Amino acid sequence: MLSTKFEEIIQKRRSNRRYDPTVKVDDAVIERSLQRSILSPNSSNMQLWEFYWIKSEEEKKAFHQLCLGQSAAKDTAHMVVFVTRQDLWKQRAAWNLKLVQDSIEGEPSKMQKRGLEYYGKLIPLLYRNDIFGISTFIRWNICFWMGLKKPMMRFGGKADQRVMVHKSCALAAQTFMLSIAAEGFESCPMEGFDAQRVKKHLNLPAGAEINMVISVGKGTEEGVWGPRFRVPYEEVVHVR
Predict the structure, then answer these.
(1) Contacts of 36 (CB under 8 A, 6+ apart)
(2) Nearest by Cα to 78 from 167, 156, 169, 188
């Protein structure tokens, strides 16, 4: 059953910080895993992410230093840098809007009308920013006054936008790591890196942000730092 297989994958996936340099990971494994990552759930299907596949020896050596020389970035077969692209919201909104428009034959359906409204008006309201903060002020007021009468998504400033795109990107990163585990290899998500230098190295624009860097390889026993401990189920799960 799928449930049994998924349980095996979840139990297998561990952050592994030391890889066997003699074992290669085929490019096809990374490509399949990235294809699966693209299928991850994300906010409004905006897909405000990019994935930078690091596989040349020269680039891997550079990223070992950019990841502060940590063991998880050494002897890795591949690395993938997960990047948020909030700055691409106009292009992605237009892409979604065109998908809706192209699907219309004759009179648009109720769902199609909602799609046109959503990507044509609501998404710009959510993502637009300006140097004077007018867009943020408008969003804050809409949320505050409408929220007095009914439940409302509280969405105001740039911090809310950043959280939203990073959540989506992290979901893609998790899909990638589960896929790597399903392929029989190991991975390690890293937050220990110089974000400014990584951006510069990848020649990313100011609006891009590094979500995380994930290394991939054939893990070793010493690469798993002890048993996996988790806070008890009863302490973190609250049934209402």
Answers:
(1) 175, 176, 179
(2) 188
What does the angle CA 109 – CA 113 – CA 117 come to, to the nearest 5 degrees? 170
Residues of the chain with pLDDT under 50: none
- The two tokens of residue 97 are 């809007």
Compute the distance between CA of residue 217 and CA of residue 30 in angstroms, rounded to an integer.
Answer: 10
Beta bridge partners of 218: none
Question: Cα–chain-centroid distance for residue 187?
Answer: 15
Which pTM does this prediction carry?
A: 0.94
Q: Which two tokens stand for residue 186?
A: 């190991």
Q: How high is the pLDDT of residue 233? A: 97
Q: Is 216 exposed, middle or buried (0-12, 13-18, 19+ CB in 10 A)?
A: buried
State the residue for tokens 């399949």: 32
CA distance 160 to 235: 28
Strand spans (E) along the chain: 49-54, 78-85, 186-190, 208-217
Rounded-to-integer distance, Cα 141 and Cα 227, Å: 49
Angle formed at CA 43 by CA 81 and CA 138, multiple of 5 degrees: 115
Residue 91: the pLDDT is 98
Q: What is the pLDDT of residue 51?
A: 98
CB burial class (10 A; 0-12, 13-18, 19+) of residue 232?
exposed
